[in-house]
Amino acid sequence: MKTFILDVDTGVDDAFAILFAARHPEINLIGVTCVDGNTNLKQVVINTLKVLDASEAGAIPVGVGATRPLIDEPRYAEHVHGADGLADLGAPESKRVVDKRPAVELLRDLIEGSKDPVTLIPLAPLTNIALFLRSFPETAKKIERIVIMGGSASVGNATATAEFNIWHDPESAAIVFNSGIPITMYGLDVFMQLRMNAEHGKSLIASGHAPSVFGGQLIKTMCERLGYEITLGDYGAVATALFPELTKTERFRVGVDTTFGPNRGMTVCDRREKYAQEGDPNFAGEAFVDVVMEIDVEAMRNLWIETISRS
Ligand code: RIB
Ligand code: CA
Q1: CA of 275 to the centre of ligand 1 (A)
Q2: Is the CB of 164 under 6 A from ligand 1?
Q3: What global pTM score does this model have?
């Protein structure tokens, strides 16, 4: 059993991750915190509660976090995830109530209260995580590992060089990467590989099993909206945290470009052997990060389908 907390900006692929984390028998999902990103915070919270319902999850505390990045104005991704951030499926409103504590206090209490080591899995801009690290540094030291969906050792998606979660709030990302906590970066080098098509969606819908139907509707709707196969995206970071043996990683020094230039939000990965150990005084890259460079696509895809289909 592994103890996880997810930080989300629910969106469609955050939904795939929540469905999996809430339903896998070896995951103890002790909390979910919400932040603005794919869409505005209010909508992220609504979507997250709906997905927990669709997952048939228990009473998992949901914390409301930051409304916007530390410095930049919010820049959403509704062109990808739909106006409501959840493929405009019109899923039923949830009766769940968010936790009364702000996200950073919920994170503190969950980590302090856990008898087992906690893995923190941010699948969104890192604003909540940065604020938590600055607010409760002693508690932060108890985090076993942070497995981030974000960044890239290769290409960008929000811009030519920056991945959306880092680009949305580069300052927060820099704080997290420089925290000294062990970090795994599940970025765009593998993010797009867990592809699902409309046929996968139709098959899940045909099962009549509520969580599978919900997952299938998201897949089918998104494939039809976008006109191409979609990725299970954020889910891959949760699978990486649960079964790291399904991945191959390399350790690079990683720095976040927080300048206001064409590469703002880029995760600069120093892959030069020469500087790998002692570092390069001219390079902003800080701590070593375990960067996921390969995944077992078939195993991860089948794992997701099997897990959400569990009765
Ligand atoms: O770049 C992809 C990431 O940005 C995913 O986490 C997606 O949900 C958005 O948050
Ligand atoms: Ca996300």
Answers
A1: 31
A2: yes
A3: 0.97
